[in-house]
Amino acid sequence: MKKILGAGIFALSLLGLTACGGNSGSQGDEVEIQYWHMNVEEERVEVIKDIIAGFEEENPGITVKQVPIVEGDYPTKISAALGANQMPALLEAGVDTSLLLGEEEVVETGIHEDIINDFGKDDFFQGTLDLVESPAGDGYYGVPFYGWVQGVWYRKDIFEANGLEAPNTWENILTAAKTLHDPDNKKYGIVIGTQQDEFAEQVFSQFALSNNANVFDSDGNVSFDSPAMIEALEYYKDLAELTPPGAETWREAKDLYLAENTSMVMYSSYLMGALVDADLANETGFATPENLQPATFGQITSLTIPNTVSDEEKEAAKKFVNYVLEEENYIKYLHMSPGGQNPTRASIAEAPEYVDNEVLNAYGEESAVIASGLENLQRFGFQDGILYPSMGDISAKLIVGEAIFNMTQQDASPKEVAEKAQQKMEDTVN
User: Fold this and answer.
1) Is there a contact between 320 and 305 (Cβ–Cβ < 8 Å)?
2) How many CB atoms lie within 10 A of CB 14?
């Protein structure tokens, strides 16, 4: 049975707070629900407004009020609503938020499973379901809605010209990086995160997880100094020797690839639009690193219905979620941010109508390959259905990023940085 360890995902005060925007309400056969989301851009608000209008026309008596909230304010708004028992009937939630609401036991898990089954559980990428499954096995903390993925972006034309295999294994990635590294001509084998920041952790985590190396062992003990983790660090250091001089973060990764100073870079699917603008989309491929197993880093957003609202509001929210996930409406929503919002359903990723977009059309069938990275979605601190909330504290202290920086920029050995990080992590969680 899956379980969640720890008291909470992140600290949110539930005392002395008032609700934001009021809660949903119903009267007679009429029902109004609030829908919270983080798409605050004017053009996105208009798209959602149009989707809502279509739903309301098909469902007289139900009114949906969208409430756009700036991403940075989202935790505070949810905390306030929880404290005042005035949750909306429907909200978009990232993994951490979904798990927090699940821990607070304010999530309608069964209704989410019903919706997922309506569209076919097998149609949802497994990695997205794993991250929102209730530990009690009684449903899901939300319906996976959209997500972004991180992987290796590479120049297919340059790989072909050099007789290189796609960079989908450790061996292929390292071979390609060595072959294409030509620093005298400002051409570098690969760009990965080497700065002391979150980007370094998320890039390294993908290689570590592909080697079955996680921050915690099966007993919940910190295991950053495990042989598998040290092996991943050794590999990462080898890659770092084939990067530009200095410590790189996501800005350099993006800029160097677009400037064609590298033919291989680790980045999220938010790169897709920039590649189209730079006329590089047709020549760019996407791969997921694999060693002992494939591993994709990313984030998903789910649609969550709280159990604190009335039955009428729950039913109205369920109808709206089903409406939004219908192919035409779903694709219209996803096209608000092509590449950044990838479908969580394989059938939608493969639909010609989904690819029929200025950005996605440039990638053709590759669009479905990119979205399919959600199938193997993994994260440090979440393994075998167990969440370790203290991973949030470890990440906040940039312990992994510091280890990467010291190893790649200060020439510390992988074993040395693993042992130091191990001690810092143990001090953090104990």
Assistant:
1) no
2) 12
Q: How many CB atoms lie within 10 A of CB 355?
A: 20
Structure tokens at 361: 């059309």
Structure tokens at 125: 């990428």
Integer Cα distance of 59 and 351 in angstroms: 27
pLDDT band for 316, please (50, 70, 90 cuts): very high
Nearest to 190 by CA among 228, 164, 226, 208: 164
In a 13 Å sphere around the CA of 353, the CA atoms on its Cβ side amount to 12
Structure tokens at 232: 């991943």
- Those residues whose C-beta lies under 8 Å from the C-beta of residue 430, and which sit 6 or more positions away, are none
Please write down the HEC assignment for all residues of 273-329.
HHHHHCCCCCCEEEECCECCCECEEEEEEEEECECCCCHHHHHHHHHHHHHHCCHHH
Name the helix (H) or strand (E) containing 10.
none
The CA distance from 135 to 120, in Å, is 21
Rg of the chain over all Cα atoms, to the nearest angstrom: 22
Mean local confidence (pLDDT), 201-215? 96
Token output for 224: 């950053």
**What distance in Å separates the CA atoms of residue 67 and residue 40, rounded to the nearest whole number?**
9
Taking the C-alpha atoms of residue 179 and residue 174, their distance in angstroms, rounded to an integer, is 9
Contact assessment for residue 111 and residue 130, using Cβ atoms and an 8 Å cutoff: no
Burial class (CB within 10 angstroms; exposed 0-12, middle 13-18, buried 19+) of 1: exposed
Binned at pLDDT 50, 70 and 90, residue 99 comes out as: confident
pLDDT band at 7 (very low <50, low <70, confident <90, very high): very low
- Overall pTM > 0.70: yes
Pairing of strands 342-343, 25-27: unpaired
Query: How many CB atoms are closer than 10 A to CB 82?
Result: 21
Going by the DSSP 8-state scheme, the letter that residue 185 receives in this structure is G
Q: How confident is the model at residue 100 (pLDDT cuts 50, 70, 90)?
A: confident
Contacts of 270 (CB under 8 A, 6+ apart): 148, 339, 340
Cβ–Cβ under 8 Å, residues 4 and 99: yes
In angstroms, the CA 136 to CA 29 distance is 34
Alpha carbon distance 99, 94 (integer Å)? 9
CA proximity to 366, closest of 375, 355, 377: 355
